Amino acid sequence: MKNTVTLTDNRNGKSYEFPILDGTLGPSVIDISNLYKDTNMFTFDRGYTSTAMCRSEITFIDGAKGELKYRGYDIDWLAKNKIFLDVIHLLLHKKLPNQVELSEFRTRLKMRSFINEKMMSLFSAFPDRAHPMAVLQACVANLSAYYKRDMNFDDPVEYMELAERLVAKMPTLAAFYHRYTMGYPFIYPDLDRGFTENFLYMMRSFPHSHVNISPIEVKALDTVLMLHADHEQNASTTTVRTVGSTHSHPYSCVSAGIGALWGHAHGGANEGVIKQLEEIGSVDNVDKYIKKAKDKNDPFRLMGFGHRVYKNYDPRAKVLKSLRDELIDEIGIDSNLIKIANKIEKIVSEDDYFISRNLYPNVDFNSGLILKALKIPTAMFAVMFVIGRVPGWMAQWMELKEQDTIKIVRPRQLYVGPSSQNKDENLEKSNIEFSSSKDR
Ligand code: SDX
Predict the structure, then answer these.
(1) Beta pairing partners, 15
(2) Which of 10, 25, 26, 138 is least buried, going by the fewest C-beta atoms within 10 A?
(3) Residue of the nearest CA to atom 15 in ligand 1?
(4) Tens digit of pLDDT for each residue in 369-420?
C-alpha cells in the first residue's frame, strides 16, 4: 500500500499524488510542498486549522483526549514530581536534569538574572500607566542590543547562552517594571532564593525588611509557570518561528512573540477572565452572560473557555483547578469569584451550545484566580504567561536553528481584489509635486 493520497481535479480529471508523513504521535500529515508546482493551486486554510508548519520534538497535544506532553513527559506527572526549573532544563537541554545538573543550571540562571544597569533608564521612558506587556516587549528587544555585538547566534553553545540569559532575566524585567510603576525601590535578585521564589521576592520585598513568602505560594506560582512553558505551534510560538525564519535576532523573535501573546484571544485571556468574573460580580448575573456568550450577534465570549486544539478539558486547567481548590484555605482566594467561576463551569458543562462546540475551560480559566490570590496585579497576568512561555519559545527557536534548511515563512493568498483599474480614463493624472524647494 503506497503511503500517499491522490488529489483529483474534477474540472479536468487530472490526478496528483502527495506523500503521507507519519509522526511518532498524533495525526499524519500530507506533504503538499509540491502542490503549487504540480497543480498551480494553493491550499486555503484560515487560521491554519488543518496545517502543520514544521516538524517538532518538543511538545505534543492530544486535543481529543486532553493530553499534553513536554518531550514525552505527561504534564500531570511533571506537575506532581518536578519543578519549573526541571521543565526549563528539559525544554532547552532536551533532558530532565539530575541533581548536579539542576544545581549547576540554577546557579547559571541566578548569575544571569541581573540586567545591565544601563537598561534601568529604559523604564523611565514609559508613562506610569503603560501596559506591562508593552514594556516587556520593548525591554526584550532592547536586550538584543546588549547581547548581539559579541554573540554568534549561529553557534549552538552561544545561542544556548542567549536562551538561558533571557529565561533568567524575564522575571527581573517584569518585577522591576512593577516596582517602577509603584514608585518602589528596585529589589535585585537574591542569590540565596530559588528561581520562582525570587520573582515573588523582587515583587514584594522592601530594603532591610522581612518579606513574607509561603512555600505554598512558591509551589502555586511554580506550577502555573510550568503549565505555560510550551504548547506546540500556538499563535505566539508561530510568531517566534516566523520571525526566526528570517534569521532575525532571537530576542527580536521573542519580542514579537510577546506582542502576539498579548491579545485577549491568546495570552491576554487570563486577565480577561478576572475582569469578566469581576464584571459579572454575582452568581445571580451568570445566566445573563451565558446568554450573551451564546448570542451569535454578540461578540462577547466567555474568557477562559474554548481552544483551537483541545476539544476536551485542557489538562492544564485540570491541574490548576485542583491547585486552586488546594489554595482556597491556604492563601484565601476570592470566594465570590470562585462561586461565579464554578457556576459558569457547571452551566457550560451542561449546555448544548458549549457541548456541541467542545468548549471546555482552558489554561486561563483558573490561572487568573491563582495569580490574583498571589497578589500579582491583574495587568501583569499576561506577563506571568510570558515568564512561563519563554523557555518554550527559546526551545522552538533553537529547534528551528538546528533544522538543516530554515525555510523563510511566506504563505500565499486567495486574491479577491480588482483585476485591473488603471485603464479607467476618468481618473485625473495626479499632479505630483516633484518640484524642488528652489522652484517654489
Ligand atoms: C490560549 O493555541 C494555544 O495553544 C493557545 C494557548 C497556549 O498555551 O499557547 O493554549 C493559550 O490562548 C488559550 C485560549 C485563551 N483564549 C480564551 O480563553 C478566549 C476565549 N476563547 C476563544 O476566543 C476561542 O475559543 C479561541 C480563540 C481560544 C479558539 O478559537 P477557534 O479555535 O478559532 O474557535 P472558533 O472561534 O472557530 O469558535 C468555534 C465556535 C464558534 O461558534 P460557531 O461559529 O460555530 O457558532 O465556538 C464558539 C465560536 O463563536 N466559541 C465560543 C467561545 N470560543 C469559541 N463561544 C463563546 N465563548 C467562547 N469562549
Answers:
(1) 8
(2) 10
(3) 266
(4) 999 999 999 999 999 999 999 999 999 999 999 986 888 999 999 999 999 8
Task: Name residue 6's beta-bridge partners.
Answer: 17
Overall average pLDDT of the 295-317 stretch: 93
The helix (H) or strand (E) run that includes residue 388 is helix 381-402
Residue 53 CA to ligand 1 centre (angstroms): 20
* Residue at grid coordinates 506532581: 80
Same domain, 48 and 144: no
Which residues span the domain enclosing 14? 4-52
Residues 330 and 387 in one domain: yes
Whose alpha carbon is nearest atom 8 of ligand 1? 231
CATH number of the domain bearing residue 273: 1.10.580.10
Place of cell 537541554: 93
Q: Is the pLDDT of residue 439 over 80?
A: no
Question: Can you tell me which atom of ligand 1 is nearest the CA of 235?
Answer: 2
Please check whether residues 158 and 273 belong to one and the same domain: yes
Say if 428 falls within a structural domain.
no
96 and 231 co-located in one domain: yes
Q: Same domain for 41 and 166? A: no
**How many percent of the chain have pLDDT more than 70?**
96
Q: How many domains does the chain have?
A: 2
Whether residue 124 sits in one domain with residue 25: no
How far apart (Å, rounded) are the C-alpha atoms in residues 92 and 391? 7
Which of 45, 50, 230, 301 to mutate to test ligand 1, by most ligand atoms within 8 A of the CB atom?
A: 301
DSSP H helical ranges for 70-205 = 75-81, 84-93, 99-111, 120-123, 132-146, 156-182, 195-204
Catalytic sites, residue numbers = 307, 364
Q: How far is the CA of 399 from the centre of ligand 1 (A)?
A: 28
Is residue 75 domain-shared with residue 113, that is, in the same domain?
Answer: yes
* Probe residue for ligand 1, chosen from 87, 308, 364 as the CB with the greatest number of ligand atoms within 8 Å: 308
Closest residue (by CA) to atom 32 of ligand 1?
A: 308
Domain membership flag for residue 326? yes
Amino acid identity for residue 24 in this structure: T
Please indicate, yes or no, whether the overall pTM of this predicted structure exceeds 0.85.
Answer: yes
Q: Is residue 431 part of a domain?
A: no
257: in domain: yes
